[in-house]
Amino acid sequence: MNDITRYQPVNLANFEKLPQFARVPADIVRDIRVVGSVLPFKSNNYVVERLINWDDIPNDPMFQLTFPQRRMLSEAHYEAVAACLDRGASPEELRGVVNEIRLELNPHPAGQLEHNVPIVDGERMRGMQHKYDETVLFFPSQGQTCHAYCTYCFRWAQFVGMSDLKFASREAHRLAAYLVDNPQVSDVLFTGGDPMVMRSKLIAAYVDALLEANPPNLRTIRFGTKALAYWPQRFTSDADAEALLDVFSRIIASGRQVALMGHFNHVVECSTPEVRAAVKAIRSRGVNIRTQSPVVAHINDDSAMWAEMWRTQTQMGMIPYYMFLARDTGPQDYFKVPLWRAHRIFTTAYRHTSGLCRTVRGPSMSTTPGKIAVDGVATINGEKVFVLHFVQARDPEWVNRPFFAKFTKDACWLDDLEPAFGESEFFFEARLRDLLDQDDLEAERLSAEA
Q1: Mean pLDDT over residues 12-30, rounded?
Q2: Which of 14, 189, 245, 318 is 20 to 30 A distant from 262 in Cα terms?
Q3: Do residues 381 and 398 lie in contact, with contact meaning Cβ atoms separated by under 8 Å?
Q4: Distance CA 45, CA 234 (A)
Q5: Which residues contact 191 (CB under 8 A, 6 or more apart)?
Q6: Where are the beta strands (DSSP E) in 269-335?
Q7: What is the rounded CA–CA span in Å between residue 65 and residue 44?
Q8: Spatial contact of 352 and 307, defined as CB atoms under 8 Å apart
Q9: What is the pLDDT of residues 314-351, one digit of tens each?
Q10: How far apart are CA 402 and CA 41, in angstroms?
């Protein structure tokens, strides 16, 4: 599999045929097969040939990022699936065991199914999310996969064949109508999955529907993508790469901005000739590339790597944007980094970069009430506390308002925190309950009318 000009997926059906696996221990092969039966598993020939150091298996960060690892499942879950495989269980039996496990892994965190879906013409738009005033997320149905799957993926439920857990929409005209009716929206984010897996003509169909509707409030079209890291040829040598770049140019010509939200988890993803050529091609069309990643154990929980990655991205003309925290879903126990340590990694890396890299924000977590940044640890009136603030919020009045939580060394997420200074709840909780209750009442009304 040395040819990287033509995309070739690597998955459960063929990974053992890779020549690199001739020297991978049998227990690691078994772990991939067991865990890959529960969580999404797909790599590709570019990742295998260009990004993974096969002399450092299983510790290589890119191997950890794209090949399932045993401790991504609890011991009980692992043994249940392994037992099915060992005894040759029927596909139906295996599917039943696997789906029960999946439902225990919080497949849609932060109320995505219940509380972020907008309403158009009295119907819930299942392929859209509108949590923050200015930005609508759109999930084109043809983009609900990726060139390779990240093992930590917080949208893993999109990819495992459980239809009730999917977001998807083909209705670009309803998105356009929604923007016209909601003048507070300035940005649309095409996401997934990865919209860059779609053919350029499909991307053009969605984009052109927006441009033809010409909502005056629409200022920026964003594309969330891992393609720059996993298949940069999408922007250079794929058959319709030029057509994709032309779509970007049309958006720019309409007076709007294009922001490519590039997901890079490790500096090695920025190191190849292919990615450098892709960045150059994209930027030549006037597109801004902003970079982001969660901080995840076993892959990038190292401040020196982050500093090097931000410096490299800035030198390439990209803009460091966010460091996230691993979301409370899927194999979070394997990948989670405590809040205090994530902040230390961020701050140490930040200190070793120039001002041009310091566009980056974080570490932040996308929670039910909003996107919360960890600003640090402080001692106030003798109490050790986390200092936090909302970067984005379900209620805009919460944005940039500092608040405090009791320090606990093991806290990895908002749910692990308690209010500081003897408060019974955080300042936003009463209002949050009201907002969520309103969503529930509207959902009940629509269900009754259906």
Answers
A1: 96
A2: 14
A3: no
A4: 14
A5: 137, 138, 139, 143, 223, 224
A6: 288-295, 319-325
A7: 12
A8: yes
A9: 999 999 999 999 876 667 789 999 999 999 999 999 99
A10: 39
CA dihedral 334, 339, 341, 346 (to 10 degrees): 110
Looking at domain 112-363, its CATH superfamily turns out to be Aldolase class I (3.20.20.70)
| Single-letter amino acid, residue 200 | S
What pLDDT shows up at residue 288?
Answer: 98
What tens digit of pLDDT does each residue of 121-155 get? 777 777 889 999 999 999 998 888 999 999 988 76
Residue 402, phi then psi, degrees to nearest 5:
-70, 150
- Rounded to whole angstroms, how far apart are CA atoms 292 and 261? 7
Query: What is the DSSP secondary structure assignment for residue 26, as one 8-state letter?
Result: H
Strand, helix or coil at 37? coil
Residue environment code for 166-179, b if the CB has 16+ CB neighbours within 10 A, otherwise e: bbbbebbebbbbbb
Among residues 144, 151, 109, 107, which one has the least CA distance to residue 127? 144
Q: What is the DSSP string of 144-212?
A: -S-SS--TT-TTGGGGSS-GGG---B--HHHHHHHHHH-TT--EEEE-SS-GGGS-HHHHHHHHHHHHH
Whether this prediction's pTM lies above 0.85 is answered by yes
Say what the alpha-carbon torsion angle 106, 52, 191, 40 is, to the nearest 10 degrees: -40
CA distance 27 to 93: 24
Provide the b/e sequence for 82-103 (b: ≥16 CB within 10 Å). Answer: bebeeeeeeeeebeebbeebbe
Structure token pair of residue 96? 């039943």
Positive/negative CA dihedral, 49, 52, 54, 57: negative
pLDDT of residue 223: 98
**CB within 8 Å of 299: residues ≥ 6 apart:** 61, 64, 65, 152, 265, 266, 335
Q: Which residues are CB-neighbours of 91 under 8 A, at least 6 positions away? A: none
| Of 232, 178, 182, nearest in space to 209 by CA | 178
- Residues of the chain within CATH 3.20.20.70 domain(s) are 112-363
**Contact assessment for residue 171 and residue 142, using Cβ atoms and an 8 Å cutoff:** no
Residue listed under structure tokens 């439920």: 157
Q: For the chain, give the number of residues.
A: 450
